[in-house]
Amino acid sequence: xxxxxxxxxxxxxxxxxxxxxxxxxxxxxxxxxxxxxxxxxxxxxxxxxxxxxxxxxxxxxxxxxxxxxxxxxxxxxxxxxxxxxxxxxxxxxxxxxxxxxxxxxxxxxxxxxxxxxxxxxxxxxxxxxxxxxxxxxxxxxxxxxxxxxxxxxxxxxxxxxxxxxxxxxxxxxxxxxxxxxxxxxxxxxxxxxxxxxxxxxxxxxxxxxxxxxxxxxxxxxxxxxxxxxxxxxxxxxxxxxxxxxxxxxxxxxxxxxxxxxxxxxxxxxxxxxxxxxxxxxxxxxxxxxxxxxxxxxxxxxxxxxxxxxxxxxxxxxxxxxxxxxxxxxxxxxxxxxxxxxxxxxxxx
Length: 348
Ligand code: SF4
Ligand code: SF4
Prior knowledge:
Distance between the termini: 62 Å
Strand content: under 5%
Strand order of the largest sheet: 1-2
Helix content: 55-70%
Oligomer: single chain
Structural class: mainly alpha
Bound molecules: iron/sulfur cluster
Number of domains: 1
């Protein structure tokens, strides 16, 4: 085995992936800015509605935060051919992110998701403040990692086995779902002490444990992880040139034993390319389509695939009328004034 310290001192990142951290961070910030801009427009939309106006248009991208509704819409679309007209943008983005997971692993988590970006900053700050992060022992890590799948199964089971087309239609076009985005905003605007403490607790835990929310609790990440296992693209190691220095494994934020794998197949890999960027051996660790054809997908290629597919999908959705919903402003104006009535509880 090669001397690990020797490579650490050399600090020679894999040539092809030298720029990967910077490129990924840039893409993450682009999506964060898009999210913040969408959120700001949505806050203004709701504010004007509350004042009795409707001058500010509603940004459809806000529907990306309604994944359960989108999962129902997906099943409904498959069963009936009817594309949800209440939150069409949510369904478009949901399909895009599923395809992205199939295409380039769980890249949504480490390249697109703003929660993933916040999580990453938190554990990096934690590392700076406390000098290290903490890893849970395997006997605790494994059952905790299954939690996100249990949450996913809870929702998916109810949707796939508990709801037929009629029930799905009732939900999708029902009172609650028509204003689910506004309800979500009001939830955060008037957040209860309990919910706030839960969020703050998760943030504190994220200082100590890398990506606590993503690793253990996020059902969206679990769903994408499931799809990512069928991805033809995987982190691939060439054992002939690998020196077993373990730098990849030490750098992996998902705690994957990269130095022991030929192909990283696990659902935990987010294609963040951290491992490839620290590998000191040329052409040894790469994101590639197959272990035989060692044609690496560079960080630039991944970034372009993600950005272009986003532009293409959202652009096509706009052109074909699958972006804006068909709820008139008048209806929003009427509903906003009765938003706290039991009609808009999600049990209806
Ligand atoms: S194996 Fe590599 S690409 Fe996958 S999560 Fe770990 S560091 Fe990121
Ligand atoms: S693949 Fe991992 S263990 Fe092998 S040389 Fe690269 S960093 Fe070291």
